[in-house]
């Protein structure tokens, strides 16, 4: 069984492995870390083995490192840290889905407006629009049955 700085080093190595494995496979928590350390034969004691000030700080550091790619806001991070992991991730996912829906609506509205503007420009000028428009807008224009080819 490891003690002192040797145990701290084993804890840090295990935390690094958990970060590399990712949050889906190895979410960092005191309980999960404790189980992994016992399974590897590094400790026999209870969860209190991880409760020293230095070890708590180490666990906190690697928990935040693991959460960094998720781009959680402060409230969501607190939910995670307070063991409401699933709810924090569900809330984040819900918020992102709502934002995507908003942006898709905005894109659709903007596309319709641009198509209308382009139609007016085509009717009133002799400009060649192919070179001015993005491929996305050209495909949108062509997909509308009432419009002629550019």
Question: What are the salient characteristics of this protein?
Answer:
150 residues, mainly alpha, 6 helices, 0% strand, rod-shaped, disordered C terminus
What is the gist of this entry?
This protein has helices spanning 4-21, 30-39, 53-67, 74-81, 85-124, 135-143.
Give a verbal description of the structure.
The structure is a single chain. By secondary structure, the chain is mainly α. It is built from six helices and no strands. The chain has helices at 4-21, 30-39, 53-67, 74-81, 85-124, 135-143. Helix 1 (4-21) runs parallel beside helix 3 (53-67) and helix 4 (74-81) runs antiparallel to helix 5. The radius of gyration is 27 Å and the shape is rod-shaped.
Helix content: 55-70%
Global morphology: rod-shaped
Q: N-to-C terminal Cα separation, in Å? A: 76 Å
**Mean pLDDT level:** 83
């Amino acid at each position: 069984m490891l003690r002192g700085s040797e145990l701290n080093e084993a804890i840090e190595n295990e935390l690094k492995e958990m970060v590399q494995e990712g949050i889906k496979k190895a979410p960092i928590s005191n309980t999960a870390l404790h189980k992994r350390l016992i399974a590897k034969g590094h400790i026999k004691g209870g969860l209190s083995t991880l409760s020293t000030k230095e070890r708590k700080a180490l666990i906190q550091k690697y928990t935040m490192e693991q959460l960094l790619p998720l781009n959680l806001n402060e409230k969501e991070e607190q939910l995670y840290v307070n063991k409401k992991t699933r709810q924090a991730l569900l809330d984040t996912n819900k918020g992102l889905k709502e934002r995507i829906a908003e942006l898709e609506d905005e894109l659709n509205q903007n596309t319709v407006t641009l198509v209308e503007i382009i139609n007016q420009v085509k009717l009133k000028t002799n400009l060649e629009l192919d070179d001015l428009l993005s491929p996305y807008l050209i495909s949108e224009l062509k997909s509308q049955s009432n419009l002629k080819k550019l």
